[in-house]
Design a protein that fits this description.
Blueprint lengths: L1 H27 L4 H13 L3 H8 L2 H34 L5 E2 L5 E5 L9 E7 L2 E4 L2
Antiparallel strand pairs: 1-2, 2-3, 3-4
Helix pairs in contact: 2-4, 3-4
Length: 133
């Protein structure tokens, strides 16, 4: 009986730990520019706009926006900007960016005709990459 309880306890700990590792893994995807772009594409394709915004809008901009305006911001983003940004991210996914001297700002040229923006700029803040334009 004690062995089965021990096994159940170990299985529970393993499952809980596995869930935490997965969340950490998703955050870790934003530590490298190439995997951050892929994760951004995944979130936009899945229509997880609020999650995308919370992960890719720089923290200081999110603070300025505040929780009370975030839902409206996410709604407008989903209606007007998400599709354009998804197309832009797909167009730069395999491209090499222009990096600034300290390697914390990466600028990609968007290769889409009539794109509203001709570049996508990522900025590394602490250990994560954020879209800064």
């Amino acid at each position: 009986m004690k062995i089965s309880r021990l096994l159940l306890l170990l299985l529970s700990v393993f499952c809980l730990n596995g869930g935490m590792v997965q969340a950490d893994d998703k955050d870790a995807l934003r530590e490298k520019l190439d995997t951050a772009i892929v994760e951004g594409i995944r979130l936009l394709e899945a229509k997880e706009y609020a999650t995308f915004l919370r992960h890719f809008v720089p923290p200081d901009m999110l603070k300025q926006l505040g929780d009370d305006k975030f839902d409206e911001f996410a709604k407008k983003f989903s209606e007007k900007k998400a599709g354009q940004l998804l197309a832009a991210l797909k167009s730069v996914k395999n491209e090499k960016p222009k990096l600034d001297d300290d390697g914390t700002t990466a600028t990609f040229d968007v290769k889409i005709e009539d794109a509203p923006r001709k570049t996508v700029v990522f900025k590394k803040i602490d250990k994560y990459w954020y879209i800064s334009n």
